[in-house]
Known about the structure:
Elements: H1 3-45
Amino acid sequence: MPLANKLELEQALRARLLVNSISSKDTKHSIVNRTKRLFKKNLRLK
């Protein structure tokens, strides 16, 4: 793996951890709501 890719990967992981630590509850709720919405849309389309 090239060095640049490794650094980018580390930065991305750090950013993700930071976001998770700041708003883990918010993100969980938003993900749940989003999946529910998508599920309802899919049911309507069928």
